Amino acid sequence: MTWVLDLFLLFFIAGTAIAALESKCLLTSAIILGAYSFMMCLVYAALGAVDVAFTEAAVGAGAGTVFFLSTILRIGRDTSQ
Amino acid sequence: MKKFAILVTVLVGAILVWGATDFPQWGDPNSPASTHVSDRYITEAYSASHVPNLVSAILADYRNFDTMFETTVVFTAGTAIFLILRLPLGPLARRRNSKHPQAERHPLPRDPILEMACRILFPPTHLFGLYVLTHGHYSPGGGFQAGVILGASFILLAIGFDLRAILARFPEGLFKPLAALGVLLYVGLGVLCLLLGGNFLDYEALRVLAPGISSAMIRSHGILIVECGVTLTVGSVIFGIYANLVSRGNHEGGL
Amino acid sequence: MSVIEHNFIYLFFVVLLMIGLYGAIAKVNLVKKLFGLTIFQTAIILFYVSIGQKKGAAIPILEVGHGHQALPDVVAAHYINPLPHVLMLTAIVVGVATVGVALAVIQRLYAEYGTVEEDEILEKIVRS
Amino acid sequence: MTEQLIILIIVWPLLAGVLTALLPCRENLLSAWGIFNLLACNAMGLGLVRLVLAQGSTSYHISGWAPPLGIELKVTVFSALLSWLISAVALFGFVGGRRTWADQIGERLPQFLSLFFLLVAAFEGLCLSNDAFNLYVMLEISSLATYGLIAFGGGRAYLATFHYIVMGTIGASFYLIGVGYLYIKTGTLNITALAHMIAETELTQAYLLALCFLITGILLKMAVFPLHFWLPNAYTYAPAATSLLVGPLSTKLAVFLLFRIMMDIFGGVLPSLHPTWSFVIVGLASVGILVGTSLALAQYDLKKTFACLIVAEAGYMLGGLWLTDPRGTVGALFHLVNDAIATLVLFLVVIAIQSSVGGKKLSDLKGLFQKSPLTAVALILVAFNLIGVPPTAGFFSKATLMTGAIASGRFEFVIALLLASLGNLVIFFRIIEQAYFQPQDNSEAGRSKDGQRAGAFALAIGSLLVMLGLSAYPVMETFIRPVVHL
Asked: How far is CA D294 from the centre of its chain?
């Protein structure tokens, strides 16, 4: 039955990816992208790639989101489209 | 523009699916990817370097040239961001510098609860980073992850307190040379192996320095030294990038 | 379609790749372009990780305690192929390094033109 | 000990780059340090060429592991020549760019030179490595260093760099997808092992798709016709010292990478690929040459004209590589060597003009002959090379390309080459007419010392083109023919 969980995780990731691109406010997109990176880290762990999951969590969700947020702090949150 | 983008994306997607039709079945143990070279990695890695974590063994022993250039990529990114953002810029760019007042943040009120929380969290995060570094051989972890965790512990303090307060304790004069030191440690070890008669980054050549140790253990120690170099570089560069990005180069404002 | 049942994850890789590529090309806001680029790169990482999979195999870490010198009898089919994982450690860190440089350039663009929308920047360049 | 030269030529600039970031910002110290390191690189390059001429192509196992397990560096006759060319162009670019440090770089010089050396190390690694994924990492380092060097130009350079980042990352990721498709079918990353496995199996969709993605990724890096939008702005608004190193080498090494993928990986199955792929790609290259030349014709800023010429040159080499006749490939590789030096001289001339006449626009070139005759002579020399006038190397590379095109029946490529030469003639005649025949406006005819020296240096490097031209056939026979085993 675990493949149902994986399937749900994969579709949830596709949903977060689209949401991160389509949302109007940059801050929301950055946070959703952080969630997207963390979901990807779960998929890697499910696939057995423990080192890649660890790195993706630390580097992708951790450092990447912090860099995005610190830039959005500097340039304001609203986007035209 | 949108229609062009959709067209390109669908075209790329269609070609990829067409290419993927004759992939070997997902997950079968004797697909070419799993039988040609990787089975030799799995069977020989432990006897060669006594490192149970096969990923760390391959990362820092079989393909350590990749990891050396990986550390150089991180160092290059740190230097490039320093070059682009760190004020004052060269005279050419200063003449056309920021005409637009950027969103100046009013100084945040100091929040004692947040500061105490960060103060309490900093030592365990640091300790965990060092644990991940030293146990990269036995459990998932290693140079990159340890470096990011150490960098993140400094970023945590910079968010809790003020960037200037943390830069007083971990100044630019310290984390820039540390980043260079990490890469020098890695490349220096390779050159040392070269001078001792082996090929570049061939840890076997280090046995001349420590005759008593078996070749597997010397490779294990070589991997540890290399991981320390990676941790130094990644940790200081991640904090350096954060310090430059959040304050747009003048190291004053920021979160 | 034999591809669907047992190679589904490659199809999912293609879907994620298309989302990322669309975001990188179509979005006008420069930060959104970077989001698309990040999604594009994580999709490739997923592709590489799913290459090395073996059904019912354990994670690529041998069960050997400290100082346990005896060499366990290692059968390649019992462990997942570790090579793609090594390659993807490099790709993740390269991705973050590129995002860092791109964000630095975006901040300079904002200081120069006051906006991060590509069409507004091009207007300002044409006007000046 | 000479065996270690292969790794030393990569590691020395890497170490120099890391150490430069720590040096204080004093111009003469950094200048001496740079010249010392680049001379060492040149010496190693020469040693490598001699080593390969003596022993033939040798390979080097890094960390002592044999190729399927460890990473392997392989140096052939042509890659030895290329690695020496990289260090020579870097040395001349470094020396030529020093006079622009004061007004364009200021106190960020140590970090700028650190990226400069890291870029040289990445280029050396790109031309010597024999592992598919290692080439991706080298591609990434050269891109990252180039982003930093170009973005330092300020103003318009920021948007140009951002476009370059997006296109460069997509290109490198396509290359990575191609390597992934090859890895899933063959299970190995070493280029020689890949070639053996591909030669045995018949080309199923995954291999064709891998080749298609590898080529698309590299075409993005080469900035050939449909994907060339980022290059003219990036090289124009970059600081002068950057365009001296990035301009001549960046696209040429992408061409060399394309050659290695075609010849080293898919060499065995190339004849079966040739009819269809050659038709598509040579046609694309011909259109690319015409677009590049017409773009160059439309510009008034001198530097942008020369940047657009790079796009046209990339079309020459792409078309030459994919001609079915081996002379096309030999012509393309010789053009690669000749064009690296020619682009370097072009940007040196821009610097010389800027310091003697004080402007980059076509209109302020009046009276260049009076102000600094040496720069004008260098300009004429490189114009001859691009048009293809006999004594210079440009003529021999175009002649070989044309014979290859005629032999393989690709007449639209021959027409494109001729029209491009005509276009170059018009471009350079317009510049020379402005520089020589126009009456010099009233500004005093003081010959600035700086302009003279810059012009003399540009002319000295320009004379290399004539020397390369005179020794064209021996160079082709010893360095290029053995590598092209079509």
From this structure: 21
- Ranges of residues in chain D with a pLDDT under 70 are 1, 439-447, 486
Whose tokens are 């720069």? That residue is: D375
- Chain A residues in contact with chain B using a Cβ-Cβ cutoff of 8 Å: 50-51, 53-55, 58-59, 62-63, 66-67, 70-71, 73-76
What's the rounded Cα separation, in Å, for the pair C27 and D248?
A: 33
**What is the CATH code for C2-55+79-127?**
1.10.287.3510
**Residues of chain C contacting residue D132, judged by C-beta atoms under 8 Å apart:** none
Q: Residue type at A22?
A: E
Provide the domain limits for residue A57: 2-75
Cα distance from N-terminal residue to C-terminal residue, chain A: 40
* Local confidence band at C67 (pLDDT 50, 70, 90 cut-offs): low
Residue among D281, D59, D274, D246 nearest D150 (CA): D246
Residue A81 domain-assigned (yes or no): no
Give the minimum alpha-carbon distance from B104 to chain A in angstroms, rounded to a whole number.
8
d(CA D97, CA D120): 15
Question: Is D in contact with A (3 or more beta carbon pairs below 8 Å)?
Answer: no
- CA C105 to chain B, closest CA, distance in angstroms equals 7
- Between A65 and A78, name the one with better pLDDT: A65
As a whole number of angstroms, the distance between CA C112 and CA B201 comes to 45
Whether the CB of B30 is below 8 Å from some CB of chain A: the reply is: no
* pTM for the structure as a whole: 0.93
CB D87 within 8 A of CB D9: yes
Count helices and strands in chain A by DSSP H and E runs: 4, 0
How would you label D26-62 residue by residue, b for 16+ Cβ within 10 Å and e otherwise?
A: eeeebbebbeebbebbbebbebbbebbeeeeebbbbb
C97 to chain B: nearest residue by CA? B77
Question: What digits encode the pLDDT tens for the residues D412-451?
Answer: 999 999 999 999 999 988 888 887 777 666 555 556 777 7
Average pLDDT over residues A11-23: 92
CB contact under 8 A, D155 and C33: no
Nearest one of D266, D247, D271, D264 to D326, comparing CA atoms: D271
Q: B75: which 2 tokens?
A: 């160092």
First-to-last alpha carbon distance for chain D, in angstroms, is 34
Listed by number, the residues of chain C in 67-96 with a beta carbon closer than 8 Å to a beta carbon of chain B are: 71-72, 74, 76-77, 79, 81-87, 89-90, 93-94
Question: What part of C 44-63 touches B (C-beta under 8 Å)?
Answer: 50-55, 57, 59-63
Q: Please report, in angstroms and rounded to a whole number, the separation of the first and last CA atoms in chain C.
A: 57
Which of A29, A75, A78, A81 has the highest number of chain C CBs within 10 A, making it the mutation to test binding with C?
A: A75
Most B-contacting residue of A26, A70, A72, A80 (CB-CB within 10 A), to test interface: A70
Strand partners, C58: C79
The answer, yes or no, to whether the previous bond of D390 is cis (omega within 30 of 0) is no
CB–CB of D128/D79 below 8 Å? yes
**Alpha-carbon distances of D477 from D261, D327, D471, D474, rounded to whole Å:** 22, 11, 10, 5
Cβ contact (<8 Å) for B84 and C94?
no
pLDDT band at C9; cut points 50, 70, 90: confident
pLDDT of C2 above 80: no
Q: Per residue in B110-131, pLDDT tens? A: 788 988 999 999 999 999 999 9
Sign of CA dihedral D216, D217, D218, D223: positive
Structure-block tokens of residue B139: 């459990």
How many residues comprise chain D?
A: 486
CB C39 within 8 A of CB A17: yes
Where do the domains of chain D lie? 270-486
